[in-house]
Design brief:
Structural class: alpha+beta
Helix content: 10-25%
Distance between the termini: 30 Å
Radius of gyration: 18 Å
Number of domains: 1
Strand order of the largest sheet: 2-6-5-4-7
Number of helices: 4
Largest sheet: 5 strands, antiparallel
Order of helices and strands: EHEEHEEHEHEEE
CATH class: Alpha Beta
């Protein structure tokens, strides 16, 4: 449970918001990756391809949160970004999570100033701790999810990933990160994530 400690003893008739913080791809790169994935969807049988407006790098998953806690959360997030400057990231190789023959996630890796990304992620986790949010126990592995749940008739061929990385210009593009966002999840909508707050450096 990730309710704000200061209000969790009370009851609210407001539905909780499922929140997370993230870095978005630039608009140009979202379009390029979206075009790449539309081509890939004709060759790779994944059940769900991410909407191009939803491409992001998760910083911290916050979970179900009382809407009354959001102003304090936004204030803490803004303080976390104080004196933090823009940095550059790039997409790199494609990869999968899960069983090699039937992966559950197709993703794009990251290059560029990833140390800056990790520092930002650490600042956010530290800033949200006093509000009752907790860091995930698993190691932070930043990536951009492209598709989920392989459903091909035959086993997935990992060799396709090597060819994809070599041939797709979108997987080598870079962009300047000068803001990040607080997202709310809207299940079954397309796009599925709605911006609650944008935080500029």
């Amino acid at each position: 449970m990730t309710m704000n400690d200061g209000i969790k003893d009370g009851k609210s008739d407001l539905a909780p918001e499922r929140l997370f913080t993230a870095v978005r791809l630039s608009p140009e790169l979202r379009g390029a990756v979206g075009g790449m994935c539309r081509r890939l969807s004709r060759e790779l049988s994944f059940a769900k391809w991410v909407h191009e407006e939803d491409y992001h790098i998760t910083l911290q998953f916050l979970g179900d949160t009382d809407p009354r806690a959001i102003p304090a959360l936004v204030s803490a997030l803004r303080k976390a970004a104080a004196n933090f400057g823009p940095f550059t990231l790039s997409l790199s190789e494609a990869g999968v999570f899960g069983a090699t023959a039937a992966p559950r996630v197709l993703w794009a890796g990251l290059g560029g100033e990833t140390d800056q990304l990790r520092e930002l992620q650490g600042r956010i986790v530290e800033a949200t701790l006093p509000l009752g949010f907790r860091a995930e126990e698993r190691a932070y592995k930043p990536h951009v999810t492209l598709a989920r749940k392989y459903r091909g008739e035959g086993a997935f061929d990992p060799g396709q990933l090597d060819a994809l990385t070599r041939e797709e210009a979108a997987l080598h593009a870079s962009w300047r990160v000068d803001q990040w966002v607080l997202f709310a999840t809207r299940m079954h909508n397309k796009p599925m994530y709605e911006i609650v707050e944008t935080i500029n450096f």
